[in-house]
Amino acid sequence: AARGSEKLIIVSPRPNAVLSSGTSTVLGGAGKDHDVPLTVDILDRSGTSIGSAQVTLDSPPGTSAVFQVEVEFRVDRAQPGRVTVSEPSPGIPGTVHLSSVDVLLQP
Questions:
Q1: What is the pLDDT at residue 5?
Q2: Is the pTM of this model over 0.70?
Q3: Do 8 and 98 contact (CB within 8 A), yes or no?
C-alpha cells in the first residue's frame, strides 16, 4: 500500500508497458484521505479518457489499502497513452491525489 508522501501508487501496469485494446488490469496501493471511490482512467495521446472505472477501497480514510480494477478501452492505432489513478475531493471540485504511468496503447 502507499507509504511516505505518495498517497497513490500504480504497481501495474509498469512504465512503458504495452496495453492491448480490451480489458486491462490496474493494480496499486492507496492511502486515501476521504471516503470516496478512486477513479482510474486510460488516456489516449491527446489526453482524452478512452476507458474509465471507479474502485471503492475497503478501508477507512487515513489508512492504506491495495486496489485492483479492470478498465475497458479501445484504440484503432498504436499510440502513447497514460494510466491515471485519482482521488477526487468530496467538497471542493478537483483532485486531491493523482498518480500516473505512461504506457503504449495497441489495437
A1: 67
A2: yes
A3: yes
